[in-house]
């Protein structure tokens, strides 16, 4: 029987520290041709993300279930690869990187900028990785049959012996989470740390996350936190479900606590992150999730208990 591993990421607790990105980079993408690759990245939203403007580049499936080949991002959209020069930048009044001209855009260029006027401005962090989709557009688009989905855990992989670097997968993935290694001339992507998973260890990003906001497990394992959050209580939802790929990375939407004060300095309980923005990311289902989370929090504040909050506040990172 086919099984599916999934990850739940609690956006309400993401610190934006990028430890997950660094853990992934150190383990998987430090080799030649992967310099610009972040299989895991953390975006400040609203913002263009990584690669730049990935949400408007197309991909996924049309209403008839045909795969859509979207736009191929340019190398510059992933950000240029430069080396830092702290001596020059910090002590000699120069730019901080060894590049002429200095880069004008890169991954996380607009970190923490967000949107809105002072006092009502907001932003949130959005960690992203390949969703190991149930219906992967990358797989559907590959004319070499080089992309496959494992029966035992649903992990989607690129067979490097078969890939010829046509990049149809890059075009078709609406999340732009397959990347091209120009040194090897092949496509590469997040492997969900399968060598670790096979040893019963969680993904490096989940293991190293200091906020402990990532949980990994099988969707059909009723004892796993992933099952409780995504299946049983349905408070973890995928990013852009409308793309039609059936993502298996689920998010707890940010709870959006009060950020504005009245003239007495008391917090006003308004949504910091507009619901319209959250709907643009997670679809209309986000309203019900926020309502559930609010009700659970109020129940606990009034002396009650909440299995959802207990799971979210636990230190569990995996159930494999
Ligand atoms: S997120 Fe993109 S690369 Fe990953 S499985 Fe889905 S379609 Fe393929
Ligand atoms: S390591 Fe965890 S808290 Fe830090 S940015 Fe990544 S997901 Fe967020």
Describe what you observe in this structure.
With 320 residues, the protein is of the alpha+beta class. It is 24% helix and 15% strand. It has eleven helices and 13 strands. It has a five-stranded mixed β-sheet. Strands 2-3 form a two-stranded antiparallel sheet. Strands 4-5 form a two-stranded antiparallel sheet. The site of one iron/sulfur cluster (SF4) has 14 residues, from helix 4.
Cofactors and ligands present? iron/sulfur cluster
Major sheet size, sense and barrel closure = 5 strands, mixed
Regarding quaternary structure, how should these chains be classified? single chain
Integer count of domains: 1
Q: Shape from CA axes?
A: globular
Mean pLDDT: 93
Q: Number of helix segments?
A: 11
Helical content band:
10-25%
CATH topology descriptor: Alpha-Beta Plaits
| Highest CATH level, the class | Alpha Beta
Distance linking N and C termini: 16 Å
The name of the CATH architecture is 2-Layer Sandwich
- Strands, count: 13
Radius of gyration: 20 Å
Strand content: 5-15%
Strand order of the largest sheet: 9-10-1-8-13
How would you classify the helix and strand content by structural class?
alpha+beta
Order of helices and strands: EHEHHEHEEHEEHHEHEEEEHHHE
